[in-house]
Specification:
Elements: H1 5-31, E1 40-49, H2 60-70, E2 76-82, E3 85-90, E4 93-98, E5 103-111, H3 115-119, H4 127-147, H5 157-179
Antiparallel strand pairs: 1-5, 2-3, 3-4, 4-5
Helix pairs in contact: 1-4
């Protein structure tokens, strides 16, 4: 087989098609994680009530006692008081309690099948995955560059593709400058 831009572009894209789709989908879902959590879903929600407590009384001992009384499974990751709301995060559940009324809820969740694992691709920092992701990044650069040389004639990169590429480069830069 002859080494050409078309063949290189095609073969690398074929090899990485699964990862390209996984990264694209999980990236889209992670972009919207404020309105929907793509890694997990709530399978149980319980309303609770505790005696009214002042936020200054909330400490590690209070949280440990609360966890034991409610038989909450999973390790406690963090807790904080935000205004008059106590929020406790465990590995498999979240608790929110209104400190002025003592009313709250415990939401238990599970990992979303497939999508939950796909989103981990964006955050896995194990050595082998970092190297594979670096290879993937280089492959995306090769796909982009070889893609510029596939088409000939009036629709080639040099004829009109460069204009679209320039727009594609300017668009994210505008957002970078607007955000910062």
């Amino acid at each position: 087989m002859k080494l050409t831009a078309r063949n290189t572009h095609r073969d690398i894209a074929y090899f990485f098609v699964g990862l390209i789709i996984s990264f694209a989908l999980s990236g889209i879902f992670l972009n919207h994680r404020q309105s929907w959590h793509p890694r997990r879903y709530v399978y149980d929600s319980k309303e609770i009530s505790i005696p009214v407590i002042h936020k200054d009384s909330i400490n590690e001992a209070f949280i440990k006692n609360f966890t034991n009384e409610r038989s909450i499974e999973g390790d406690m990751r963090r807790f904080n008081v935000d205004g008059e709301k106590l929020k406790i995060s465990y590995t498999t559940s979240d608790v929110t309690i209104d400190l002025t009324s003592g009313k709250g809820k415990i939401e238990s969740y599970r990992t979303t099948p497939v999508l939950g694992q796909m989103t981990k691709l964006h955050q896995d920092t194990s050595k082998w995955w970092i190297y594979y992701s670096d290879i993937f990044g280089v492959a995306m650069i090769v796909i982009a560059i070889t893609g510029m040389f596939i088409q000939k004639g009036d629709t080639s990169f040099s004829a009109r593709g460069w204009k679209l590429a320039l727009l594609g480069l300017i668009f994210p830069l505008i957002f970078l400058f607007l955000i910062s």
